[in-house]
Amino acid sequence: MASTLVVYLHGFRSSPNSSKAVKTKEAIKAHSTMSDPIHWYCPQLLASPKQSMDMVIEYIQANPVDRLIVIGSSLGGFYANYLAERYQCKAVTLNPAVRAPRELAPHVGVMTAYDSDEPFDFRPEYIDELCALQVERLTRPENYFLIAAKGDELLDWKEMVDFYSGAQQLVLEGSDHGISEYSEYLPQVMRFISN
Fold first, then answer.
1. Which of 20, 68, 71, 142 is the most exposed, fewest CB within 10 Å of its CB?
2. Is residue 33 a contact partner of residue 97, using CB atoms and an 8 Å limit?
3. Residue 72: enclosing H or E segment and its boundaries?
4. What is the pLDDT of residue 112?
């Protein structure tokens, strides 16, 4: 019996309650069977990139499976690159921040998450932590499936397409950073992780 662990990593200031995380979880649960179980792990990531990755790696090490798959949105896509390179596993990245240290440097300071009033402090040293996690080049592009929206208002889709050269890619005309019509593309995500 083969078991699979799907790790979903949400974006900056987001949470496991984001619509893409919830929709992916429902699709994973529908695909999971007694003979081919798929385990779901979507933690609330911490402000510290290092602590976030330490927490996820600790979970992966404590729950050995036959197959590991990571799915990441925005900053979560940056983390997914790091984990996919570390474990040489499949990754789906949704409008990923391929250069997170540069993208998040202007956001240092105290802010709130999108779905909570709880303040969190994004400290200057977290940019250094992101630099330590930066993947410069994909060693096995065939392990990756990129979904990039030309209408992303926060990140440059062309940079994503270049970074994931050689990977499976779905480039959307229009759309937005959150990929609001994500449900339409979920079957392709499921096909990629099922093969």
1. 142
2. no
3. strand 67-73
4. 79
Of 87, 3, 14, the residue nearest 53 (C-alpha)? 87
Q: Which tens digit of pLDDT belongs to each residue from 128-171?
A: 999 999 999 999 999 999 999 999 999 999 999 999 999 999 99
Question: Which is higher by pLDDT, 118 or 186?
Answer: 186
Quick check: 24 and 69 in contact, CB under 8 A? no
Average pLDDT over the chain, rounded to whole?
95
The boundaries of the domain holding residue 80 are: 4-194
Tell me the CATH number at 167.
Answer: 3.40.50.1820
pLDDT for residue 117: 75
The answer to whether 54 and 82 are in contact (CB under 8 A) is: no
Distances (CA, A) of 73 to 3, 33, 99: 24, 26, 13
**How many domains in the chain?**
1
